[in-house]
Structures are given as C-alpha cells and as structure tokens.
Amino acid sequence: MRTVHVAVHDTLADWEIGFVTAHVNSPAWHRTPGRFQIRTVSASPDPVTTMGGLRVLPDLTLDELSADESAMLVLPGNDLWPTEAYQPYVAKAREFRAAGVPVAAICGATGGLALAGLLDDHAHTSNAKEFLVGLGYGGAELYRDEPAVNDRGLITGGAQAPVEFARAIFAELGIYEPAVLDSWYKLYGRQDPAGFYELMSA
C-alpha cells in the first residue's frame, strides 16, 4: 500500500482535489486495486476548515512526514499561500523534490511554489501566466498555457482544471492503464458517456 499525502489547511479549495482523492482511494478501474491510499497532512494536529466549510482532522503533521514514506505530496489551492502560514508546506514540497518524490500543486499552491523558486527550472502552469509573473518569479519562460503540466514529477494545474490535474497525477502514479485513463478522461473531462461504457467493460 502506497500513500498519497494531501496537504490540508484552513481555506483549502475543496473542489480542486475532489477527483484526486476520490479516485486514488477508490479501487474501481485501478491497475492494482488497493495499491494506494490517501492520508491528510497539516502543519499542526488541529482540525482545519476548508473553503467549503468542511472540517478535516489531519492524519499526521508535516514534521511527521518523510518523503521516503510517500508516493506524492498534493498541495491544493488556498488563501494562505502568500503568507508565513504556508511556509511549512513549501518547505515540505522542497524536501520532497530534493528526494525525487513527486509534488502536485494547483491554483494558489502554484503561487506558493513560485515565490519559493520551485518553478524556476520546471515547465509548469497555473491559473494564468500573469498571476505568477505578478509575483516576480523567475520561471516565466517555462510557463505553459495548458490545464495541467507534469515536468519530471512536478505537476501543476490551474483552478479551472481539476480533472486535468487529477489525470496528470494518475498518470504519474501509474494508477490506471493508459487506455483506461483515456476512457476516464473521456467521461469526466469531455463529459462523453462513451467513456462510462468503456470503463465498465475495462
């Protein structure tokens, strides 16, 4: 059983990781059912409140999390990213990347990584190029105007693209066979019902 760790904190944008958490935990259509699990990680053991008003009790704290015990760190969007309160999450992302463990960030979390220089040497995306450029970061030449980008295990996505963000994560983890992942995206990304029947036959 490999663990995907999802950072949780006040103002977490619930909708940006819904596809990720549901389908990593669900055995349906997985290449190896039960191979992955989701665990939540936060700066403190206290409950957090998401942007949608859900209260989440973290499974562990950041100082208890080691990169070699994780398959990936997922950083949802939030309103904390430009503040000191978000620095422990950025520091953990830096630790993961130094260890060669994938990190996936979406929406405001990409802003936090940009401010820390973690996007300066990787192709990446975000909500908009102007969003990151306005932060004064050094990676503008590597910005890609795409819903989600994976460059050497650093996955980034825009708030408007939770399905594409999830697809990039699934591909990195190898959760689905390529043809199954194509059908998954056909259903959830293109709203094509043919994807549902393909998944049922898979």
From TrEMBL:
<dbReference type="InterPro" id="IPR002818">
    <property type="entry name" value="DJ-1/PfpI"/>
</dbReference>
<dbReference type="InterPro" id="IPR029062">
    <property type="entry name" value="Class_I_gatase-like"/>
</dbReference>
<dbReference type="Pfam" id="PF01965">
    <property type="entry name" value="DJ-1_PfpI"/>
</dbReference>
<protein>
    <submittedName>
        <fullName>ThiJ/PfpI domain protein</fullName>
    </submittedName>
</protein>
<feature type="domain" description="DJ-1/PfpI">
    <location>
        <begin position="3"/>
        <end position="171"/>
    </location>
</feature>
